[in-house]
Write a structure and sequence with these properties.
The chain is an alpha+beta fold. The protein is 31% helix and 29% strand. The longest helix is centred in the N-terminal third of the chain and has 14 residues.
Length: 262
């Protein structure tokens, strides 16, 4: 049986979804809502806290509760990897027309703002193990943040690691000003003679760090998903390891498995 605060939050949610309360609107005072729903103030606050956790409302200190503008949603499917590989050898016009983030979000290139930061690092032990290299090996670390032009926070934060000796075979791959790169990592690797054979992804959920809460604009109670992506070439060599942080209130992860026919 639903608890009293759950019934209240369900009705307030209905009123938001119906448009009675629009994005940006301030909700009635907590005392007024408690009186309207004939519940105690602690119960009303519990109901509002549940809606805040869902990302439907936000509490502004000293001002009250406001309906939150819905954030850009995205769906990340494992089919994206074959889609990227299919485009790796396409001409520049086709590769420049759209990218993986546009595929995930349904937004156009003009609706996205992209930022990339490159640096050369020495692989610490955990990263070296993941890449199959010796600790201290030179690695190109690339940090990507992409956001909707209508929002301030990035859709996700991705950190990519490629053995430096591989990336330096094409000097353009060391230049962050070349980003966003038409065709993404699959095409970048193709320029140095690498064909990606398989992609492994391990997805885990966890509470966000304080830095992630601020950078990703997360509400209280929202988790993040960590994606550890590993790319192998046709010889079985690891050519990239990437860590992607997906906000739980933005992303759905869709896994599609095609089965061989009998």
């Amino acid at each position: 049986m639903a608890k009293r605060y759950e019934k209240v939050s369900e009705d307030v949610r209905r009123r938001i979804e119906s448009g009675e309360y629009s994005p940006g609107d301030r909700l009635p005072a907590e005392t007024a809502l408690a009186a309207e729903y004939k519940v105690s103030l602690p119960t009303m606050r519990q109901a509002l806290a549940a809606l805040q956790t869902e990302g439907l409302i936000e509490k502004r200190h000293g001002r009250g509760n406001f309906v939150r503008k819905q954030r850009q949603r995205a769906e990340r499917s494992n089919l994206r990897h074959q889609w990227e590989k299919n485009r790796a050898r396409a001409d520049l016009k086709e590769r420049s027309s759209t990218g993986a983030t546009e595929l995930d979000t349904g937004l156009s290139i003009k609706q996205l703002a992209f930022h990339a930061q490159y640096e050369r690092i020495q692989a610490p032990e955990e990263l070296a193990t993941a890449l199959g290299v010796e600790p201290g090996t030179a690695v190109l670390k690339r940090t990507y943040r992409t956001r909707s032009t209508n929002e301030d926070e990035p859709l996700n934060v991705a950190r990519s690691y490629i053995p430096y000796e591989l990336a330096e075979q094409n000097p353009d791959l060391l230049d962050e000003s070349q980003e966003p790169w038409p065709g993404g990592t699959m095409n970048q690797l193709h320029t140095v003679g690498v064909e990606v054979d398989r992609v492994e992804e391990v997805i885990t959920a966890r509470p966000p760090t304080g830095e992630e809460v601020e950078e990703l604009g997360l509400m209280a109670g929202v988790s993040v998903m960590d994606v550890r992506k590993t790319l192998y070439d046709i010889s079985g060599r690891i050519v990239e390891v990437a860590d992607v942080v997906l906000p739980g209130d933005r992303y759905a992860v869709k896994c599609v498995t095609t089965l061989e026919r009998w």
